[in-house]
Automatic annotation (TrEMBL):
The lineage of its organism: Bacteria, Pseudomonadati, Pseudomonadota, Alphaproteobacteria, Rhodobacterales. Belongs to the binding-protein-dependent transport system permease family. LivHM subfamily. It comes from the Bacteria. InterPro entries: ABC_transp_permease, BCAA_transport_permease. It comes from Jannaschia helgolandensis. The chain crosses the membrane at residues 16-35, 42-64, 98-123, 190-216, 237-258, 270-298, 310-328. This is Amino acid/amide ABC transporter membrane protein 1, HAAT family.
């Protein structure tokens, strides 16, 4: 039972990332009809926004301390972060420690602006082009972004730690009646799961309960009719592209303490997230979220020792096997809509 609970937690952790990325992908496809193969790169850009915030807060000035010497007998130099000089030792240290959560404040405007530029500068020219053209151009853009990140940040992963208060693990065993230290799980992974839940709920609430969201949903169902009512649906869809980019970017920001960012992390998640979207049903937001968590849990159980001993390599192919089974039995996916990607 303890191992079962732990695998469920692992699956929810993985599923959170899959669901957030797939949610943004589905928003873009559902509104604009664009198959965006650069969406994984947006996840990567968000992660490096967190890296940038950490580096900015750690910028320091060098001073000489005449009362101390180094091993050669020269006056010692001391590096003091600017935020420590500006706000004092305690506040400055806290800002540096909380660099990843603070990066959310930077990531939201950066990713929305990035999404606007991407949609207006490139994507809008491919609305009426075949999906193959959209895939090629967005995949090319993803490679360009990947190489830009590699040029400025290097090829090696960059550790970006969580705040000190969230380091360590939470003991689930004591809550569930088990012996202490039988079911423990890292605090930050629990934070990531909760964060994903908040973002997913916010997106659904925005689409369901706001006038803007209602118009967007109407435009997704019948774009021409909404346009005939005098509503500039294209402008609203552009805003939705920015929101989708922000969702992917925030997912990347909060993922940095779990997996140190590197220049190819976007590609690592891209294929899996598209599988999630297809399994959930192209254009279905609930389907994307449901499939993300289901596939995350399945991948977690497939990574256990007994599973890999029974079927070597099953953890690497389980998601694709499930996708094959789902598409053979339900070609539209779990919650796909009629007519989507059927032309």
């Amino acid at each position: 039972m303890e191992a079962f609970i732990l695998q469920i937690l692992n699956g929810l952790d993985k599923g959170s990332a899959y669901a957030l990325i797939a949610l943004g992908l589905t928003l873009i496809f559902g509104t604009l009809g664009v198959v965006n193969f650069a969406h994984g790169a947006l996840f990567m850009v968000g992660a490096f926004v967190a890296v940038t915030m950490s580096k900015l807060l750690s910028l320091s000035t060098t001073t000489i301390d005449p009362t101390r010497t180094d091993f050669l007998g020269n006056p010692a130099t001391i590096d003091t972060p600017y935020v420590v000089n500006w706000f004092g030792p305690e506040v400055g240290a806290t800002l540096i420690d909380w660099a990843v959560p603070l990066a959310i404040l930077l990531a939201i405007p950066v990713m929305i602006l990035f999404g606007f530029i991407m949609e207006r500068g490139l994507i809008k020219h491919f609305y009426k082009r075949p999906h193959a053209d959209q895939i090629l151009v967005t995949f090319g853009l993803a490679i360009v972004l990947q190489e830009v990140i590699k040029y400025f940040y290097g090829a090696n992963p960059i550790p970006t730690p969580a705040p000190d208060v969230f380091r360590g693990s939470f003991d689930f065993g004591t809550l569930l009646g088990f012996d202490p230290n039988t079911v423990i799980y890292p605090y930050w992974r629990l934070v990531y799961f909760a964060f994903a839940g908040v973002i997913i709920a916010a997106v659904f609430a925005f689409l369901q309960f706001t006038t803007f969201g209602m118009v967007v949903r109407a435009g997704m169902a019948d774009r021409e009719t909404v346009g005939l009512l005098g509503i500039n649906i294209d402008k609203r869809f552009t805003i939705m592209f920015g929101i989708a980019a922000a969702v992917a970017g925030l997912a990347g920001v909060m993922y940095t303490p779990i997996n140190p960012p590197n220049y190819h992390m976007g590609m690592d998640f891209l294929v899996l997230s598209f599988v999630v979207v297809v399994v959930g049903g192209m254009g279905s937001l609930p389907g994307a979220v449901l499939a993300g968590f289901l596939l995350g849990i399945l991948e977690s159980f497939a990574s256990t020792t007994w599973a890999t001993n029974a079927v070597p390599g099953i953890n690497q192919i389980i998601i694709y096997l499930v996708a094959m089974i789902v598409l053979l039995t339900r070609p539209r996916g779990l919650m796909g809509r009629k007519g989507v990607m059927e032309d």
